[in-house]
Amino acid sequence: MLTFVLRRLGILLLTLGLVTVIGFLLIHITPGDPAVAAAGPDADQATIAATRVELGLDRPLVVQFWEYTTGLVRLDFGTSFDGGRPVLDAITDRLPATLSLVIASLLVALLISIPLGVGTAVHRGSIWDRIGVLLASLGVALPDFFVGLVLVLVLALQLGIFDATGYVPLFDDPIQWAYLLVLPALTLGTTVAAELTRHIRASVSDVLELDYVRTARSKGLGSTRVILKHASRNAAMPVVTVFGNQIARLLGGTVIVEQIFSIPGIGQLLVQSVFTRDIPMVLGIGIFIAMIVLLVNVLIDLSYGWLNPRVRA
Amino acid sequence: MNVTASRERGRGLRQTLTRGGGVDRFRRQPLAVAALVFVVVITTVCILAPLLTPYPFDRGVLADTLQGPSARHPLGTDDVGRDVLSRLLYGGRTTLLAAVQATGFSVILGVPAGLIAAFAGGWVDACLSRVADAIMTFPALLLAVVIIGITGPGLTNAMIAIGVVYGPRLFRVARAAGLAVLNETYIAAAKTVGCSPLRILMRHILPNALSPLLVQVSLTMATAVLAEGSLSFLGLGVQPPQSSWGAVLGRSVPQMSQHPVPVIAAGVLISLLVLSFNLLGDGIRDSIGRERKS
Amino acid sequence: MNTDLVGQHVLDINHLTVEFRTVSGWSPAVRDLSLTIGRNEVFGLVGESGSGKSVSAMSILGLLPRRGTRIGGGHVRLGKTDLLGATSKQLDQVRGSRVGMIFQEPMTSLNPAYTIGEQIAESVRRHRGATRRQAWDRAVSLLSRVGIPTAARNAERYPHHFSGGMRQRAMIAMALACEPELLIADEPTTALDVTVQALILDLIAELRAESDMSVLLITHDLAVVSEVADRVGVMYAGELVEQASTADVFNAPQHPYTSGLLSSILALDSTREFAGIPGSVPSVDREFPGCRFADRCAFATDACTISPVALRRSAGRIHRCLRSDELVLEGAR
Ligand SMILES: Nc1ncnc2c1ncn2[C@@H]1O[C@H](COP(=O)(O)OP(=O)(O)O)[C@@H](O)[C@H]1O
Ligand code: SF4
Ligand SMILES: [Mg+2]
Asked: What is the pTM of this model?
């Protein structure tokens, strides 16, 4: 178990390293001088040169890279081109909104996919199964932005049940916070739910055919208990892996959904920074997200131990 | 295993495609066939866009801005008076081309690396596999946005980014196919009779890898179409006045409450194309899946 | 145990037909099966693999997959309870409580995610309404009864810590947790080493002797049956072809198939299980005009292939062969 987690941790650190290296190289290989971007649109040659020295962009790449990575270890993500604000500050300011969105979306995804996936697996081959499978393949194909816009069109603009956009911090007004999160969470949640449903269905119907499920039935446990206790834990193993990937995908989706619903989260910050060519911010957000993905994956790996005693040994 | 047998097992590319009723099995899946038809029709229509529509995609009539559907403009016009249907037809070219670019890039990146990993084994395989694992853990869209943020907006950059992100999937398929074939005795036989590595690759490995690769290519096309849509929707993909489905959609959002048609039309097109590539991939997988069982 | 001592029927299967959906429609995997098991009796059901033994056993407890399976007719009664007509709730009250079951694959029949003790205890909690503590204690004592050493400690371990033999003992403990009237053991020793096989059989025989439990012992191995069964039923291609006391079946079989099976155990050729009979069990969707065994039977005549052969009774014995009166078939001794 320990070696397994350590190995996975290694892979994830490698991801982090790769993102850093690729990002760093891209900045310097591709046309477009970061100093020009940093100095602003109206800067003259002298200002640009001064900015270059000020930001340390005139030093060798290796030195810059070393400084940047050692900074990362101290959780120093550098400073924004835009006003010289520490990148990490800007990120942590935006974190609550994005976290709210991600958690609410995961909730939606699980609330939809677990009943649907288990239900279709148990009634495999029935008309409900076919409808469920069709819905799931449709859901996988629907782009986040389209789902979001249709929800806004119908539920907000036409029916007026929800507000189209906006965000209120949890501690300012919890009810408004939840209310405003419904549409964004539905948007992000449904596509993830569709993917999860497919995997839950496949996994549960595999497990239901296993000998020990038959044993459980032969003990007279009742189908609910057989499914909830005996099938679910083992069916969860492959699903948990997919769940990890889906969290990553969901983080990607925040870029779109925060844009549609004007949620002041990290995704929105990233898109803004791309437009203003605030390179340290873009790279910093990329690395920050890579760290979150890393954390999620470590948690997922640890959950294997709970799900399968054999891994624990 | 003797040489005759090895010759029988090693099939040419063409036989692989037509052999064993894989095509027949594919034909018996109505959803997959419908998906294929949709992809072919959409592609043809988009290629023929200049012949099919009287309007240009990049210039509008200012007097005709934001019109609803009419006989002259079946899907209405946009905020600068351009015909939405024409923009969608031309935009489909961009979307499809971008998807092909991204997929092609991930094939170029993933397949040779996968075959090298399979052949070389050892630490080469280990390194390449770890790098592939590493890339796969990162959210694709975010990576693309970050890469664009560094290199600047533009569809080509975006699609290279997508290609990088999906390369590992093709890497895995190619590596698995390579490994599967390497373990077969007829490869050893082919080697002993002095077949060149290139010949082994062409006659033995590619035919075996072809079906799973096709599945993966189809699924990657689906994700690439999605990614193009997302990036252009954000304004990070194609730049005006170029059109693409995602760009049409993104541009129509501000007027959505009064003029929902362009948003819905573009959204439905993207969804259907993604769905079609997914169903196509599933269909190919099922056609080979059953072949293996029987 | 002497058959004279056997009391009323615990299990009564009457003209049971079980069908599967195949490409050619509904095909019987079990056809017109009738048998009874008396109190405290061990009934051995034998036949080549694929003859329908497991399907028969599973249909008793309604464990066959619901989809693609149906009961074509007949009755199954446990005491006074009609099992085929039972609702799933009623069935759940029978399963694990009045009927315990053990399966062929001890490696896969236990859930890898829960401890051995928990898997036994949950049955006790379900049927006896015991507390967690009581159920656990019962699980431990059951484990030690079936011969698991340091049962208290082993109860807390997971299936992957156990050997095949130990797992099968745990399965037996689980099946016996609520002192069932009937134990169904479907090939309980097939997956085990020969030495372990004998120990498990001894255990089942012991447990039968110290209670008034009946046993339906399913196996393809006649040697197993000869050691522990009071009566034997022989199945072929979904049909019961012969049923009699163990001694009668072994000494004077009345069906050519039984005779073939008996000669094959003498062949001592463990790699070829049924050396005595050429050919193999036909698949379930095959249709037969007459005797299902005809194309493998050395004694088949034209009469055998005209119409289906019904069960015939004579002197307390049942068989399904037209020519049994004229044939003198070889037994095992
Ligand atoms: N779920 C099923 N669907 C279709 N056919 C089945 C199913 N289960 C068993 N069968 C068929 O029923 C026949 C009897 O099987 P079984 O009772 O398992 O034989 P055995 O005597 O070896 O236990 C076999 O031919 C088998 O292929
Ligand atoms: S009925 Fe005929 S074919 Fe069937 S077992 Fe008897 S002798 Fe053989
Ligand atoms: Mg069996």
From this structure: 0.80
